[in-house]
Amino acid sequence: MIMLFTVQVKVMPLKDLLDPQGKAVLGGLQNLGLSSISDVRIGKHIDLQIEAAAKEAAFQMASNAAKKLLANPVMEVFEISIN
Amino acid sequence: MIMLFTVQVKVMPLKDLLDPQGKAVLGGLQNLGLSSISDVRIGKHIDLQIEAAAKEAAFQMASNAAKKLLANPVMEVFEISIN
Lengths: 83, 83
What we know:
3-stranded antiparallel sheet
């Protein structure tokens, strides 16, 4: 039986890499007076709807998608979760 | 005592709104042969480091940041989680 899985893929810039978008947002937040926020990192959140027979197959498919298209391994790490 | 909390903010395009970036990625995935992926929606994932005395205060601060800067309420919804 084919089921529909909602798979979440989180793609974040690598820890050791500068995140200029995050730094800009951090500056903006501090200008707004939210000075207790000390760091911001910004990545992508991707929701996939995947038709598969089992959770493992859906996970595999999402992992494939992340490796081939969604994440750039030189600059990003990804994390997959299925509820 | 002030502690450092890592707060995750997920910002996604509203359900009823067209997500052109997601549609483009869906097309790309199907061209790569991943045809069992039937829908893609792309939003932002933001990690905040917040200094606060309690989890509730950190949550409040993140909610403030999301409302004021991180999410555009006309086009996006946000979700906050603290582990």
